[in-house]
Amino acid sequence: MLIDLSKHFGGASKRALALLGGLFDEQSALAALQESPVARLAAHHQYHCHAIARHKFDPRIPKKLGALIQQHRFQVIDTQNPQSQLWGRIAAAHSGVALVSTLNSWYFDEHGGNWKGQFYQKLQQITNARVDLFVAVSNEIRQRLLSSGIDDERIALIPNAVTLEPSAVASNHAALCRTFDFPPDALVCCAVGRLVEAKGYAHLLAAIARIRESHPRLHCLIIGDGERYQTLANHIRQMGLQRRVRLAGFQPPDRTASLLKSSDLFVMPSISEGTPVALLEAAALGKPIVASRAGGIASMVRHEEHALLVTPGDDAALADALAALLDHPDRAHRLGSQAQTHALTHFGLAAQVDATRQAYERARGHAERRQRTGDRR
């Protein structure tokens, strides 16, 4: 059973849905919040989904998880975010199932070291001793786990995967411009991700402001929701970018893919990352990419071969990279084409599902050894 108690839709939820689809059978299911985006999408795809609470801090969640584990005889639970890990640990301790913790980011870094990042990191530390296997989506996260004292035998490195079929995704640049009130000849750079500090959108706005005079056709569409929506909206207004930048909010995956394919460029200015699904999708769609070297990004795409990569937080470098692709469309097309071949060749869903099945077997083996020694943590 995969557990995703996130309120907003992001890469972790997309990963959970992809795995659920790949593992789809009578023995796999998702536990999620009622009316959350991931729950609605799971229902849309007719996956087995159990809505267990209205909010992630409901103290009845462990009991409900325990009842589901007993009723459906789940042998492994795979938690996708901090709140899922906390409640999953309690449920696993009482039911004896194998506990897997999938780390889609390093929480302290994701939240810039603020109180929320410290709180989530502390939740993870509380659950660490009881976890049978950690799944790290990038080598950077794997190294952080090793540095925190987790044995290598308890870690599986399984990057995210491409789940869309490029030829099945609709593209309509004119419709995109009409929908978001961009000029018909706009060159649209698209960013996709939760509106949180780690995604670096403030740096993207600063980069666009730097080149708005030299590149008047450049416009930007940011897809996603999150806690920084109003803050970013205020920044856009204060910087005079209301006509240049649109916050599109949450969009269903199919709609997001279509908007991305209809755009001219993809940009990911993150400060902290795992192996972002949005980047893989942009590559699979053949989009020219500008991204930071945060997290696992540099292990996914190579500079000057699949994308232009810049130092995280460097507004000037980000602006220069965007300008370089806008000024040299042949170069942009070459990078996009090479990124597409690379993503579709090396980041397939079948490999991710197979590696995940093997990881679950490893977790079961660890849980059985732990139970033989009487360790009930």
Describe this structure as you would to a colleague:
The chain has 377 residues and is α/β, with parallel strands linked by helices. The chain folds into 2 domains: 2-161 and 349-372, Rossmann fold (3-Layer(aba) Sandwich); 166-346, Glycogen Phosphorylase B (Rossmann fold), CATH 3.40.50.2000. The protein contains 16 helices and 13 strands. The chain has a 7-stranded parallel beta sheet, with helices on both faces. A 6-stranded parallel beta sheet has the order 10-9-8-11-12-13, with helices on both faces. Helix 3 (61-72) packs across helix 4 (82-95). The longest helix is centred in the last third of the chain and has 24 residues, at 349-372. The chain is elongated and about 70 Å long.
Give me the Rg, rounded: 21 Å
Helix/strand class: alpha/beta
CATH fold annotation of the largest domain? Rossmann fold
Q: Please give the oligomerization state of what you see.
A: single chain
Which strand order do you get reading across the main beta sheet?
Answer: 3-2-1-4-5-6-7
Count every beta strand, where a strand is a DSSP E run of 2 or more residues.
13
CATH homologous group name of the largest domain = Glycogen Phosphorylase B
Quote the average pLDDT.
92
Helix content: 40-55%
The number of helical runs is 16
Please indicate the count of domains: 2
Largest sheet: 7 strands, parallel
The helix/strand series, from N terminus to C terminus, equals EHEHEHEHEHHEHEHEHEHEHEHEHEHHH
The CATH class of the largest domain: Alpha Beta
